């Protein structure tokens, strides 16, 4: 099944489920709110009226946790001469970091901004000290993300966080697809394009730590809750690793796609009046 | 002024303000809830009945962000032969990571657990793209924290997060003291003791990045909100840096103190049945 948070022309949002070729409203303002109350399968039974003239927005606007895995595509790791990691590299973002599938990413000029196409996992049930099978059963679904990174800030110190947590710079969406409909372990093509030029391509079958393994691992030290989002890493082809290095420019359109899930289309804007004061 | 979240014998909590030698109830269940609605100074004017038989618990149970600074005590950095950092090293915790000023910290056996006495800053007003003066004016107050760290997990990969975000392992409290009453820049003694033996001692005057500087820096990339908590780093004397290394043992009582603020008393327990399943 496919779920989303959809907005009408006024920006008013509703959770929704795809029924054939029609999106139907679910009784919640968005998928975060929905997942906090019930599993997606149960929610689907409460589908209401078909929606017209709605567009997808950030599906999970209020996760309690957003955790990211680095260094997780085996082909890329091996081709750069490194060994496969024994443990997942993890770092955190905030709910504020996330943005919608067609939102612009706006940053101050002068930063080195890079792309990172990622498969993201949505948690559907509480997990703590879970084994891999329990974790697998707790996956609500999969969605697409781009861990757009501010590389100069990321590498100012040894801890990446300050380059990874800029508000409204991690597009997520456009839909959440349940595990019965899409199986990353079987291999989904994950790609990234800049202004139509392909810059990343790999298969999710090459993930070192798959979704269930990663959720179980995280649950060892912290509780994961319905609506939490875990990004599973990016393949080779990122700008900072190129020679010469390449970064995003004002007006670049970044497309992030995972086959079987959908597409993010993100315009990068460098604006002198950003960030927006609180 | 001094504020706290206090609980009665049944565990029911209220925000509170110290009036002379009596704690008086404020109209909120805790300081997170209070700060979300009004500045502390305004809250103090709404003090209600004096409280009897209440004890301090985690003052901020629901921060939207908990951000920590590493490598921030100048004397310690220099004595280990390093240069003072140009930028603060930052990493994130979650609200789930925090625990109360007299709560046990419970972890599975076999982990390498270390102590890190820290001054913590509580945000009192929204900050984004703030300069240092604006950030200073947005400090609600100061409290004490111990960034208890699971060192073996912290160093499994280059990103520390997975050793820093174990649920209910970062004691915070016991009170929040407003900046008019305590000035870390002037130098507050910060100490840590294990079973009465002093293991850390320094002065907050030696912080490389003071509270206002750190908040302003963070606000460059993300919005800080009332009730958010920023830990400002730990002095020398941590266990992992000793030769031989030393880690906490079952039953150890860790006392963390900042002069002018208060004391945390934390018993470390290694329990085979932890973590608590979700």
What does it look like?
The structure is a homodimer of 278-residue chains. Chain A folds into 2 domains: 2-57, no CATH class; 66-270, Alpha-Beta Complex (Fumarylacetoacetate hydrolase, domain 2), CATH 3.90.850. Chain A has 7 helices and 18 strands. Chain A has helices at residues 31-37, 40-44, 74-79, 132-137, 151-154, 161-164, 211-221, and strands spanning 2-7, 13-19, 22-25, 55-57, 66-70, 89-93, 98-99, 105-107, 113-114, 117-123, 139-146, 149-150, 170-177, 189-194, 197-203, 229-231, 253-258, 262-270. In chain A, strands 1, 2, 3, 4, 5, 6, 7, 10, 11, 13 and 16 form an 11-stranded mixed sheet that branches. In chain A, strands 8-18-17-14-15 form a 5-stranded mixed sheet, with no helix packed on it. A two-stranded antiparallel sheet of chain A has the order 9-12. The interface between A and B is large, with 46 and 46 residues.
Tags for this entry?
7 helices; globular; 11-stranded mixed sheet; alpha+beta; homodimer; 33% strand; 278 residues
Topology (SSEs and partners):
The structure is a homodimer of 278-residue chains.
Chain A: E1 2-7, E2 13-19, E3 22-25, H1 31-37, H2 40-44, E4 55-57, E5 66-70, H3 74-79, E6 89-93, E7 98-99, E8 105-107, E9 113-114, E10 117-123, H4 132-137, E11 139-146, E12 149-150, H5 151-154, H6 161-164, E13 170-177, E14 189-194, E15 197-203, H7 211-221, E16 229-231, E17 253-258, E18 262-270
Parallel strand pairs in A: 5-16, 7-13, 8-18
Antiparallel strand pairs in A: 1-2, 1-4, 1-13, 2-3, 5-6, 9-12, 10-11, 10-16, 11-13, 14-15, 14-17, 17-18
